[in-house]
Amino acid sequence: MEEKLQELFYECKNELKNIGIDLNHKLVGEITINIAKRNCQRYGCCKQEIPDESTKYIEKVGKKCYIRYAIFKKHNIEVSRWVMNLNTDIIKNTIMHEIIHCLPNCNNHGDEFKKYANYINYKLNYNISRLGDKKQDLKQSNIEIKKEHFNYKIQCSKCDYFFYRKRLNCNFTKKYRCGKCGGKFIILNGLFEL
Ligand SMILES: [Zn+2]
Ligand SMILES: [Zn+2]
Fold first, then answer.
1. Ligand nearest to the CA of 186
2. Which residues pair with 181 in a beta bridge?
């Protein structure tokens, strides 16, 4: 399985080179790719390391400020095991998606990410999107994955932002505001299966 992943990664890199995106050291630094150790529901992820300090900038989201970097010099892509059981085109879509995250200004799903995704979709007939059709893909892969259970859903009262937690500090709503809009949080109790 590991070998198949390395082969497909190599194919993706070559395809990109053919359309003018050469993943050389100068452009992206170093990229490694592995099968994720944790068996979770996401397709894959890209862990960024060694930020280029000269590309540091501050992003203001609502009242909060975040330190961001446009460029990282080391990236470790992880692809989930259940994805490796799917059609090659879905695996390669996942790899391509994570490769884009390694490119400058692409450590999110913003405009620059979309620009590359659209270009690759158009030129190489991929179907890279922010998210795949996870429900259908999970069904197709017969690898058992661990479902995660959460006891709390935290929902912003002003915008559509929400997330789940297993445990929650009792002062949470007093201490924290929505990072997107500064709105107050509402807490829903229950058992949320993701
Ligand atoms: Zn992504
Ligand atoms: Zn909000």
1. 2
2. none
Q: How far is the CA of 182 from the centre of ligand 1 (A)?
A: 24
Question: What is the number of the ligand closest to the CA of 128?
Answer: 1
Residue 34's pLDDT band, with cuts at 50, 70 and 90, is very high
Going from the Cα of 161 to the center of ligand 2, the distance in angstroms, rounded, reads 5
Of the segments 134-138, 154-158, 177-181, which one has the largest average pLDDT value?
Answer: 154-158
| CA 93 to centroid of ligand 2, rounded, Å | 31
Instruction: Give kind and range of the element (H or E) at residue 162.
Output: strand 162-165
Look-up of token digits 């789940």: 164
Angstrom distance (rounded) from CA 14 to CA 31: 14
The pTM score is 0.73
Q: How far is the CA of 108 from the centre of ligand 1 (A)?
A: 6
Backbone angles phi, psi at 21, to 5 degrees: -105, 95
Closest C-alpha among 114, 79, 103 to residue 93: 79
How do the domains of the chain map onto residue ranges? 2-140, 149-193
Largest pairwise CA distance in the chain:
54
**Alpha-carbon torsion (177, 183, 187, 192), positive or negative:** negative
50: left (phi over 0), alpha (psi -120 to 50) or beta: left
Q: Considering every ligand atom, which ligand is closest to the CA of 155?
A: 2
CA of 171 to the centre of ligand 1 (A): 32
